[in-house]
Amino acid sequence: MSRNAEAALLAGAAVLAALGISIVRVAGGESPDAQTALTFLVVALAFGSLHLAFRQWAANASPYLLPLTALLTAVGLVEIFRLDPSAAGLQRWWLLIAAGLGVATLAVLGSSGTDLLVRYRYLFLTAAVVSFMLPLLPSAWALGGVEVNGSRLWLQLRLFDTTLVRFQPGEIGKLFLVIFLASYLASRHAAL
Asked: Where do the structural domains in the chain lie, given as residue ranges?
């Protein structure tokens, strides 16, 4: 598959997201509004920028992964909108932030190569272990673990008894662990 076909599939995913939002609104007795166009623009901008970044800095990357990711993201956005439209607005912001981080990562790795990841692989392993252990911090601290729905996977940042941010550091830890394992296995592939 060529990069042009990849671009067409990405545009199709953006259309699918907008069409899904429209269907949800019509099924709820409302007419399509600016949410539909905004969803199309956000998905097109996020994955369009990633597509251009892949063309610029990772031309040999597989052209199949980004359209599949866009398709899953489009379906996820529609499902989130169906359940809670205000949460879908927040999810659109997260999509733009993630796409920006992805473009920045491709720019850094495109200029320095993946040797940077191989060189600091044990630092990524350490960061993964620390991320997995962060929820064990005492909840009385300003940055401490908290139990939600019976599991202590969350970390919250509080300031003057007001929760500012709550997230799962294990999700970031998984990313660090994948980077470590990929760089470790790439350097030891002859022994395997």
From this structure: 3-112, 116-187
pLDDT for position 113: 75
Q: Average pLDDT over the chain, rounded to whole? A: 90
The pLDDT of residue 73 is 96
Asked if residue 114 has pLDDT above 80, the reply is no
69 exposed, middle or buried (CB, 10 Å; 0-12, 13-18, 19+)? middle
Say if CB 38 and CB 92 are below 8 A apart. Answer: yes
Say what angle helices 3-27 and 65-83 make with each other, to 10 degrees.
Answer: 10
Exposure on the CB side of residue 86, measured as CA atoms within 13 A:
0
pTM: 0.78
